[in-house]
Amino acid sequence: MNIVVLAKQVPDPEAFVEIRGDGTGLEIEPKFATNLFDEFALEEALRIREKHGGKVKVVTLGGGKATEVLRTGIAMGADEALLLDDPAFFDGDGYATALALSRAIKKDPFDIVLCGKQATDDDRGEIGPMVAQFLNLPHVGGITKLEIADGKATAESPVEGNKAVVEVPLPAVFTTAKGLNEARVPLITGVMKAMKMQIPKATPSELGLSQEELGKAGSKVRIERYLPPKKRAGVRLITGDAAEAAAEAVRILVDETRVI
Amino acid sequence: MERLLIFVETKGDRPRKVSMELLSEGQKLRTQGYAVEALVMGKASEALKQEVLPCVDRLVSLTDAVLQSYTAEGYALALANHVRSINPKLILAGATQIGRDFLPRVAVMLGAGIASDATEIRWKEDPVKIIRPVHGGRALSQVSFLNYPAIITTRPNSFPLEAQAGTPGEYVEKDAAMSVEDVKAKVVKVEEVTKGKVDVTEADVIVTGGRGMKGPENFVMLEELAALLGGVVGATRSVVDAKWRDQQDQVGKSGKTVSPKLYIAVGLSGAIHHIMGMDTSKVIVAINKDEKANIFNYADYGIVGDLFEVVPAMTQDIKKRLGK
Ligand SMILES: Cc1cc2nc3c(=O)[nH]c(=O)nc-3n(C[C@H](O)[C@H](O)[C@H](O)COP(=O)(O)OP(=O)(O)OC[C@H]3O[C@@H](n4cnc5c(N)ncnc54)[C@H](O)[C@@H]3O)c2cc1C
Ligand SMILES: Nc1ncnc2c1ncn2[C@@H]1O[C@H](COP(=O)(O)O)[C@@H](O)[C@H]1O
Fold first, then answer.
1. B308 pocket-lining for ligand 1 (C-beta < 6 Å)
2. In Å, how far is B50's CA from the nearest CA of chain A?
3. pLDDT at residue B195 above 80?
């Protein structure tokens, strides 16, 4: 089984996010973590390899700290990594990013692509299904269970309160949700290996892509500006003993906010 | 005339609430020079027609054996083919698990832009601007499309439900003419886990319990309060990880994002991961015995007290008010 994992380094959920004065961009405190859902993808890839043999390759697109996610993947036990760090790749919408990633996946033969359900920075949740479409493969979204046998995969995914069991021939793409597994903590030997590893890169031309198809230039959606979220007025504490406070809360909900 | 296409997702034989939100939006836009069409997979029931037709100029039902159960490949191909035949400017769908699962594929098929999980659409601006939360709601991103058609999925409970009586549009059934080879995925079975229950993403009222609930048995208290208010019970991650509640009810970064009219947070601390999933709720009430709990920084109303006293008292009071 050759398994490709798409993984992304994202700001830590606790990092400060501020909107630049003119609204053109975000200032984000430089604290990073592996995208939560991508940890599940990495873990699942390693479990599949442990059971069926093969190789796990981690791929990421991004500059600077982005490489860290590849080192995390190697430290957890992945065999190979690939970095797309040409600036032409950057700042793309889901479409341009998925195009580049799908070409990177295709560089070598593969059986399974695993990626997160959503990256918690841009919150788009588009890449998995888009990559599948670019590769003309089936996908199952938000999986919580995956079994591989006889060139086929059986995946469980919750769909609006129901649980669907879906069978797909390989190769196929899966996006991972919470509940799939618990990601392992890398061993120190893995961390050492990851630190020393030379990370291979691919350029746009190596992927057969022109600058116009990539990043901002290749995007179909333009980010015009950032706006602050609606602020709440601050909490109104309701005092009194439990019975009094409860009665007052109910009165407010019924008479003032009229939500009941 | 510019055309809009609304994908109608169904639950049982009725449109989902988020689809009705979009249809309400469509009904308004019909009076502002848009031609509004809707699309449903499979034959439309009478109940569905009654709700949808007053909002649109035309409702098309795509019939095909391949579309009998949901697969991303099948739905995407059927929708993309239909789009090619009617050339809408924008395609709208709810940002539900299904909507978010297959519309990115449609975007690739059509070479179209997509804005996922939008909470606002500014129709009057040119080009149309879409607002969508990023970084777990800590900022909003205003986006527009560079070409059309383009796709928008909208977060449930973000657009008002206000469809009115209107001249019904026409209903057409169309054969999607798909072949079995179009879909490689095979749905083996669909288990109904929560029969007929409203999903947290679509509920108007959510009463969420955290670790302060002490154990799974105490959630009956929240079930009772939620039922009185026509709502459902949500859970924090700690509660789901402890197996007190189902994963499907988890609110937050690694669970679901919800925007109910009323969110009652009971015995939960308000960790940032949790806040990310509920910060767009309209009114937030927090009940926590610790006055320093972070949830109070995000609530409209707060009660510092023991939930085991406050919640039953609220339930009694609401019963009295509702005359039950
Ligand atoms: C990557 C990542 C993703 C995560 N995703 C999510 C997510 O999606 N959703 C989520 O919820 N969490 C998520 N978490 C976990 C999150 O950080 C918190 O650990 C979790 O939300 C805490 O749950 P809690 O509020 O139920 O428990 P606690 O933090 O233990 O809070 C319990 C609260 O109950 C109060 N309390 C106790 N007894 C009473 C009483 N008798 N009366 C009144 N109040 C009482 C206490 O004062 C306390 O504030 C995530 C964490 C990580 C690292
Ligand atoms: N720049 C990237 N590099 C590698 N993988 C990515 C990148 N962006 C998104 N992904 C993958 O696609 C998933 C969904 O991302 P998104 O569609 O951006 O929310 C993530 O969980 C990752 O697995």
1. yes
2. 24
3. no
Helix (H, G, I), strand (E, B) or coil at B119: coil
For the domain made up of B200-322, give the CATH fold: Rossmann fold (3.40.50)
- Give A195-198 contacts, CB < 8 A, sequence gap 24+: A195/A71, A197/A71, A197/A74, A197/A81
Q: Are residues A179 and A243 in the same domain?
A: no
A254/A138 same-domain check: no
B72 and A129: CB-CB below 8 Å? Answer: yes
In the prediction, which pLDDT does B256 show?
96
Q: What is the pLDDT of residues B107-148, one digit of tens each?
A: 999 999 999 999 999 999 999 999 999 999 999 999 999 999
Rounded to a whole number of angstroms, the distance between the first and last alpha carbons of chain A is 55
Shortest CA distance from A167: residue in chain B? B186
| Best probe residue, ligand 1, of B269, B290, B296, B308 (max atoms within 8 Å of C-beta) | B269
**Looking at the structure, do residues A51 and A97 belong to the same domain, yes or no?**
yes
Paired with A173 in beta bridges are A113, A139
pLDDT exceeds 80 at position B194: no
Are A221 and B131 an interchain contact pair (Cβ–Cβ within 8 Å)? no
> Which domain range does residue A34 map to?
2-213
Domain residue spans of chain B? 2-182, 200-322
B contacts of A216 (beta carbons < 8 Å): none
- Distance CA(B111)–CA(B84), nearest Å, equals 12
Q: Whose CA is nearest to atom 41 of ligand 1?
A: B306
Q: List chain B residues with CB under 8 Å of A130.
A: 104-105, 107-108
- Please compute, for residue B177, the number of CA atoms within 13 A of its CA located in the half-sphere on the CB side: 4
In CATH, what number is assigned to the domain containing residue A203?
3.40.50.620
**Per-residue pLDDT tens over the stretch A94-151:** 999 999 999 999 999 999 999 999 999 999 999 999 999 999 999 999 999 999 999 9
User: Ligand 1 within 6 A of B290 CB?
Assistant: yes
Distance CA A180, CA A5 (A): 15
ipTM above 0.85, yes or no: yes
Residue A94 counted as domain residue: yes
Options 3.40.50.620, 3.90.180.10, 3.40.640.10, 3.10.450.50; CATH for B2-182 is: 3.40.50.620
Say what the pTM is: 0.95
- Which ligand is nearest to the Cα of residue A38, counting in written order? 2
Question: Which two tokens mark B180?
Answer: 């079995």
Q: Does A139 share its domain with A242? A: no
Q: Which residues of A touch B290 (CB under 8 A)?
A: none
